[in-house]
């Protein structure tokens, strides 16, 4: 079987069309959505992500500010920037790009962001509400991955979903979202015994490991839906956590890298920002 592509580029472009309409409607009411991104240090991947977020804001007419801080920024200075953005009525969304340098307490910083401005969905209140199935801001990458499955009409209810990776950013919220859709969910991680026995059972396999081409064809069931969340740079080229060439021969659907989930992460960040602005404008 040759897999069908879940094309993040096309889906994100469609979402942006709709977001533009919502931004224009807000602007007609005299309200411009605003996003503040805080980037500490010079991690090259983070710089690329932050630049892409700024470009998406520009395309949609969202006012974006990127606060760039040196790698030796203190906790106090970081927290002061968050408090300032919290207090600014022109700012609807605040995003602290992760990972932060090791000397900083990221959990403490994230907990200071007002939950209604937490467009990453990383605040304890949003993460807690997601776990209880309540209305909340949902983390952008898992929200984007779920959107891809749903918009392709893929059946989730009753399916075996296996997630490889247990991060707060992807693995855990992805598990909760798929559980809400009535999948039977398994979360695997670096200490999982016989990982392949789990991945081979997956109707829906989500790879969020951070190791290039970690998921090989022998780990995948025929006809599985494979969602690749990895973004790795190998010899100057981007590749995912899935061995795309080989796995695509077995899967029914697969997301490419680049042009897959990464595009959806940014689209969902824009969606969360516009939604925060709509609530604030009410
Ligand atoms: N680093 C990797 N992914 C993300 C994300 O979705 N949000 C933030 N803030 N940092 C990240």
Order of helices and strands: EHEHEHEHHHEHEHEEEEHEH
The share of residues in helices is 40-55%
Report the structural category: alpha/beta
Mean pLDDT: 98
In CATH, the homologous superfamily of the largest domain goes by the name NAD(P)-binding Rossmann-like Domain
As for the CATH topology of the largest domain, it is Rossmann fold
Largest sheet features: 6 strands, parallel
User: How are the strands of the biggest sheet laid out side by side?
Assistant: 1-11-8-7-5-6
Anisotropy-based shape: globular
Q: Could you name the CATH class of the largest domain? A: Alpha Beta
* Helix run count: 10
Q: How far apart are the termini? A: 50 Å
What is the total number of structural domains? 2
Strand tally is 11
Strand content: 15-25%
Residue runs with pLDDT of under 50 for 5 or more positions: none
Give Rg in angstroms: 19 Å
Based on the structure given, which CATH architecture of the largest domain is correct?
3-Layer(aba) Sandwich
């Amino acid at each position: 079987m040759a897999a069908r592509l879940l094309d993040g580029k096309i889906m994100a472009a469609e979402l942006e069309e709709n977001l533009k309409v919502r931004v224009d409607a807000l602007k007609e009411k005299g309200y411009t959505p605003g996003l503040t991104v805080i980037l500490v240090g010079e991690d090259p991947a983070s710089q690329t992500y932050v630049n892409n977020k700024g470009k998406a804001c520009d395309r949609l007419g969202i006012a974006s500010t990127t606060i760039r801080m040196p790698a030796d920024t203190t906790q106090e200075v970081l927290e002061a920037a968050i408090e300032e953005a919290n207090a600014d009525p022109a700012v609807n969304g605040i995003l602290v790009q992760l990972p932060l340098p090791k000397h900083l307490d990221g959990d403490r910083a994230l907990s200071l962001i007002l939950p209604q401005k937490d467009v990453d969905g990383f605040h304890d209140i949003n993460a807690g509400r997601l776990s209880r199935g309540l209305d909340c801001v949902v983390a952008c990458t898992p929200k984007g991955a779920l959107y891809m499955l749903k918009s392709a009409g893929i059946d989730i209810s009753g399916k075996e979903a296996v997630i490889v990776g247990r991060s707060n950013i992807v693995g855990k919220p992805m598990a909760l979202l798929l559980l809400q859709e009535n999948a039977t969910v398994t979360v695997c991680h670096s200490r999982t015994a016989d990982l392949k026995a789990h991945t081979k059972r997956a109707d829906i396999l989500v790879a969020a490991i951070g190791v290039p081409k970690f998921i090989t064809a022998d780990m995948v069931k025929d006809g599985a839906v494979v969602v690749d969340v990895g973004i790795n740079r190998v010899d100057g080229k981007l590749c995912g956590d899935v061995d795309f060439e080989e796995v695509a021969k077995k899967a029914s659907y697969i997301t490419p890298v680049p042009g897959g989930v990464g595009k959806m992460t940014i689209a969902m960040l824009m969606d969360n920002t516009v939604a925060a602005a709509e609530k604030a404008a009410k």
